[in-house]
Amino acid sequence: MQENYLAKWLNNELSGEELKTFKKSDEYATYMRILEASSKMEAPEFNVDQAFEKFKNATSTETPKVITLNPFKQFIRIAALILLMLSLSYIYLNTLDETYKTSLAERTEVSLPDNSEIVLNADSKISFSEKKWNQKRNVELEGEAFFKVAKGKKFTVSTADGVVSVLGTQFNVENREGFFEVTCYEGLVSVAYNNQDIKLPAGSSFMVIDGIVYEGNETVMSQPSWMNNESTFENIPLSYVFDELERQFDIVVKTKNVALDQRFTGSFSNTDLNLALESIRIPSQINYKLENDNVLFYAGNNP
């Protein structure tokens, strides 16, 4: 029998001769029995909405298919990730700076890799690279610090207002908001400020207040007074004196009817608050009222 007789028969495409031949075949009898039996079968009832709900529930709980990667490819990826992490760690550790800072009413001493020494005044911060110290001796400063530099390569102190450079000497740098002062106690100090290079021999200083350069004061001392627990001022606005009082005693200073631009010359103790308050009151001819950690300075008899 031709293999396409069945298809033609189902589509009513057989010719008369082909139909006679097909009916005489064994296959025809089998197909007729199948056709007769299937005609008696009934399709079950089918609820589309119910079937869709079952499908959604089945797919939502179906376990996701896991694709196993090639173990060697996994190893290569992990190795590459570890190498990247090690490289980043090396770069980070070699650029990480050492940082030291003091809080209010606190002081600390720092020894540098070349045995140079730094004493940080209250509310101050320094940072430097220990890894690169032999290539560049540089310290970044915010606040005030006294430096005792060991002889060697150029030593620099970088601040927001200027850069101080020495080879080996002792000096003090104060860099506060609106205030910048460098005092040389031994050797020679070079200060780079506003495109100028100022040389400071021992006993001289350089000072800038609110952007105005003032003639530095001379000193015969071997170190700043705050190293001996005393804050000293010479012709300094009273507002900066109050700021230093806050730093040394961790208190809040408020004023009422006080001229903050009034110039102050004098000193106060960094260890005795009552004595410090009197040391400011008398030369300034103002009064104060102390309550807990707050002090109010006021002009006149009543606050």
Question: Could you write a compact summary of the structure shown?
Answer:
The chain is α+β, with helices and mostly antiparallel strands. 30% of the residues lie in helices and 33% in strands.
| Low-pLDDT residue intervals, each spanning 5 or more residues | none
Shape: elongated
Annotated CATH architecture of the largest domain: Sandwich
Number of helices: 7
Helices and strands, in order, run as HHHHHEEEEEEEEEEEEEEHEEHEE
Please state the CA-atom Rg, rounded to the nearest Å.
45 Å
How far from one another are the termini? 124 Å
At the first level of CATH, what is the class of the largest domain? Mainly Beta
Helix content: 25-40%
What number of structural domains do the residues give?
Answer: 4
Tally the beta strands: 18
Average pLDDT number: 84
How would you characterize the largest beta sheet? 13 strands, mixed
- Based on helices, strands and strand pairing, what is the structural class? alpha+beta
- Write down the CATH topology of the largest domain: Jelly Rolls
Strand content: 25-35%
Task: Please provide a written account of the structure.
There is one protein chain. 30% of the residues lie in helices and 33% in strands. The protein has 303 residues and is an alpha+beta fold. It has 4 domains: 5-60, no CATH class; 67-96; 98-228, Jelly Rolls; 229-303, Phage tail protein beta-alpha-beta fold (3-Layer(bab) Sandwich). The strands form 3 sheets. Strands 1, 2, 3, 4, 5, 6, 7, 8, 9, 10, 11, 12 and 13 form a 13-stranded mixed sheet that branches. Strand 17 and strand 18 form a beta hairpin. The longest helix is centred in the N-terminal third of the chain and has 25 residues, at 71-95.
